[in-house]
Design brief:
Blueprint lengths: L1 H18 L5 E10 L7 E18 L3 E16 L2 E16 L6 E12 L3 E2 L2 E2 L4 E14 L2 E11 L10 E11 L1
C-alpha cells in the first residue's frame, strides 16, 4: 500500500505538469487535528503540491474562478498508530479578479489512499477514502499564504465501517 501511495503521488506530479495550462505551481505544509466525537483523536501532517489547470472563469471585475489539480502525501496518526495518507484531487479557487483581494476560498475533492485503516479502536473501513475540503487562504505576501482548512474524509460507504474523519488543518503555502 505504501508503494502504491508513493507511485500515485509521483505519477500525479508528472501528469499535472504536463497539463498545467496556467503554469502556476504551489507547494506547502499542513498540520491538523480531528474534531470528531469518535473513539480516537487524529492528527495529520502533509506536504501538498498544486498545479493550475487551464480552465478559468472571470465575472466582471469582482470574481475569478480557477481550477487546480492537487496532490499530497503525509502521515495520519490516531489511537497510538500511524500510517501514510496520499491524495489526488481537483479544486476550485474562488478569488478576486486580477488579484485585488488577498483572500481566496477553495473547495475540492480528492481520492485518498491510506496505508492503515485501523487506528486504535477506530476502524476507517479500508484503504480507499475520499476527502472533501473547503479552505480560506490569506496571501499576506504576493507568493506566500496561510491557510485554514476544514476537511471530511470517509470511504463513502464502500466498506462495512464508515465513521468518517473531520479535521481542521492549518498550513503555509508558497506559489512559484
Amino acid at each position: 500500500m505504501i508503494v502504491l501511495i508513493l507511485v500515485a503521488s509521483g505519477v500525479t506530479l508528472i501528469a499535472a505538469e504536463a497539463c498545467a495550462g496556467r503554469g502556476s505551481l504551489e507547494a506547502g505544509l499542513r498540520a491538523g487535528a480531528s474534531f470528531n466525537e469518535e473513539d480516537e483523536s487524529f492528527n495529520q501532517y502533509d506536504i501538498g503540491v498544486r498545479y493550475g489547470l487551464p480552465w478559468s472563469w472571470v465575472w466582471g471585475d469582482a470574481l475569478q474562478v480557477d481550477t487546480n489539480v492537487a496532490t499530497s502525501i503525509g502521515v495520519l496518526e490516531g489511537g497510538g498508530d500511524a500510517g501514510l495518507v496520499g491524495s489526488l484531487g481537483f479544486e476550485f479557487v474562488f478569488g478576486s479578479a486580477r488579484g485585488k483581494c488577498p483572500f481566496e476560498i477553495r473547495a475540492g475533492s480528492a481520492l485518498t489512499l491510506i496505508s492503515e485503516d485501523q487506528y486504535g479502536d477506530e476502524d476507517l473501513g479500508g484503504p480507499v477514502q475520499f476527502t472533501h475540503h473547503i479552505s480560506l487562504h490569506y496571501w499576506f505576501l504576493e507568493n506566500l499564504s496561510v491557510v485554514a482548512r476544514v476537511q471530511h474524509m470517509s470511504n463513502a460507504g464502500i466498506y462495512d465501517e464508515n465513521p468518517g474523519l473531520d479535521m481542521i488543518m492549518l498550513g503555509l503555502i508558497g506559489r512559484f
